[in-house]
């Protein structure tokens, strides 16, 4: 798998969690939502169509597995999956668990209010919880 240099804004706004078969998995630094970011390790990828067909399928596979596990484990009302890239052109996919009544409900999370960053204890607890969720997804292990 190819190492890819991350856009500085992705580094600034997220925390690393683990490596998946295609993507680096990161946690958005905002306690208001369970919010994952998948970054395919493919140099120069800006749009989903920049990936091979196999990589496109793998990206959606990883997002779907993670989204289902988040919703089932953490509870939520809706899962938002999106690529934007208006400010950060490097291809990355947001997987956000939404709950009725959250800070942005029913609108999109982007551009709504101020992020509430994790403190060290909160980050450690969320990282442990998310890694346990990822470890429990058989299809993401050992691929």
UniProtKB/TrEMBL annotation:
Residues 36-105 form the HIT domain. It comes from the Bacteria. Gene3D superfamilies: HIT-like. Pfam families: HIT. This is Histidine triad protein. It comes from Halomonas salina.
């Amino acid at each position: 798998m190819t190492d890819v240099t991350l856009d500085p804004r992705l580094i600034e706004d997220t925390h690393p969690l683990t490596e998946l078969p295609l993507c680096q998995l990161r946690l958005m630094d905002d306690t208001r939502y369970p919010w994952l970011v998948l970054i395919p390790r493919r140099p120069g990828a800006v749009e989903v169509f920049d990936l091979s067909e196999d990589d496109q399928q793998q990206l959606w596979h990883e997002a779907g597995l993670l989204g289902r596990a988040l919703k089932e484990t953490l509870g939520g009302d809706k899962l938002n999956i999106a690529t934007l890239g208006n400010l950060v052109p490097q291809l990355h996919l947001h997987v956000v668990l939404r709950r009725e009544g959250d800070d942005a409900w029913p609108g999109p999370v982007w551009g709504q209010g101020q992020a509430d960053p994790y403190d060290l204890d909160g980050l450690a607890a969320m990282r442990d919880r998310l890694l346990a969720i990822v470890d429990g997804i058989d299809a993401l292990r050992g691929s």
